[in-house]
Amino acid sequence: MDKFLIKGPCKIKGEVLISGSKNAALPILASTLLFDKPVNIKNLPRVKDVDTMLNLLKSLGSVIKYSKNKKTVTISKSKKHNVFVPYSLVKTMRAGILVLGPLIAKYQKSITSLPGGCLIGARPVNYHLNALKKLGMKYKIKKGYIHARSNGKLKGNNIKFPKISVGATEQLIMSAVLANGLTLLQNCACEPEIKDLTNFLKLAGANIKWIGKRTLQIYGVKSLKSIKYTVMGDRIEAGTFCIAACIAEGDLKIKKIDSNIINTELNLLRKTGAKIKTIKNEIHVKGLKNIKSVSNIKTKEYPNFPTDLQAQFMVLLCKANGRSIITESIFENRFMHVAELRRLGAKIIIKKNKAIIHGGSKFQGAELMSSDLRASVALVLAAIIAKGKSVINRIYHLDRGYEKIERKLKKIGVNIKRIS
Ligand code: EPZ
Asked: Is the C-beta atom of 361 inside 6 A of ligand 1?
């Protein structure tokens, strides 16, 4: 298994190009099952999860043509199709569950594995299944598989999600676009990646309208048109590099990202003392030696502070002067990075879903173990400012969601090497 060798401390300077958003690409790719005609999708990130989703689509009967750099695909249908989604695939990539709705909407049948839980939590799909039932999907769970079908096409209905869920919102948007009649979705997640999905489907002729901050009105259509679409930039990757610049007294230009969608994160970084300027698709971050602590941060659904940047921000607070508190309110177990940060010298106490961070840490390099995707990148950030050598093991977690991260980091001054 690959590992990273990082020699710190490093200063960060230069510019970085942000890749396409993994969490926008995955539902957009799943929704191609709804199409009869070819669809051309640009700016895909070259990350493991996207490869996994493309392989899943191929196993379901899609024909995929890649551009030379594999960042653009043209997806069309073959004569035959398949509706079986294996556990082997969904266990490595939870977003595999997102093909369930499109398969029912299109073929009225699917045998899809339940996604296993993962390190950050149990991650059930009850909101997905209960809502799909309201559109007419019938299912039985046997040996970890969802045996689902519908009698004819799905029928529009009114659905109010019990809790805000990114995946459940995406699942129901895709399932409703070909259903008969009107579907009203209330208490939706409204992350930018979901807006990217609705923009993509509207361009293809779907009748979707945001009639409230968290309310969607969808009239089913007969079919979708052949389109070309460019996936949005990855706001979590962009946020990660902004935090990197703040941690390493950096001077960094982050390009190819709509700065408006990460205002919450940028304002929080300004509160720690960073100097941040934004132009349309570019962010310029200057990190200072003195980092101010932030008394109370809580991860919440968009447009609040995202859980996917919690681990990275915690590393910054370890270096800040004074005490900070982070509350993780989305996932039940998303502090896997804390034990590893302590090995570098971090002073963090966990009380239920709160992390109390005593700042002023001077990290010493150490051997570290990755766990989930975002915890792993937090260890990279910590190793960048640690004095001496750090080894980060099991970086396959990182390869799931960050495109060529060591190349991007090397280019801005980080002493990092991948050891296979
Ligand atoms: C998406 O996961 C993202 N993944 C996650 O990013 C992100 O952390 C999460 O949204 C929250 O923003 C993708 O987009 C591929 P949820 P998702 O449904 O859809 C509970 C990354 O690092 N829940 O909004 O699975 C759930 O357990 C990943 O890129 C139910 O109880 O998140 C969680 O506690 C990690 N029942 C909360 O809701 C359900 O049916 C929010 O989950 C669904 C969710």
From this structure: no
- Cβ-contact 267, 313 below 8 angstroms: no
For residue 413, the CA-to-ligand 1 centroid distance in Å is 33
Residue ranges of domains in the chain, CATH in brackets: 3-19+233-419 (3.65.10.10), 22-230 (3.65.10.10)
Instruction: Give the pLDDT of residue 355.
Output: 98
Mean pLDDT, rounded, for 196-217: 98
**Residue 31, CA distances (Å) to 28, 196, 230 in order:** 5, 12, 15
Residue with the nearest Cα to atom 8 of ligand 1? Answer: 308
Q: Quote the mean pLDDT of the chain.
A: 96
Residue 347 makes CB contacts below 8 A (sequence gap 6+) with 318, 357, 358, 361
- DSSP run (H or E) holding 4: strand 3-8
CB-based burial of residue 187 (10 Å sphere; 0-12 exposed, 13-18 middle, 19+ buried)?
Answer: middle
pLDDT digits (tens, 9 = 90+) for 93-116: 899 999 999 999 999 999 999 997
**CA 1 → CA 156, 340, 380, 399, distances in Å?**
47, 19, 17, 12
Query: Max Cα separation, the chain?
Result: 64
Does pLDDT of 280 surpass 90? no
Instruction: Identify whether 10 is a catalytic site residue.
Output: no
CA distance 28 to 174: 9
Residues 375-404: pLDDT tens digits?
999 999 999 999 999 999 999 999 999 999
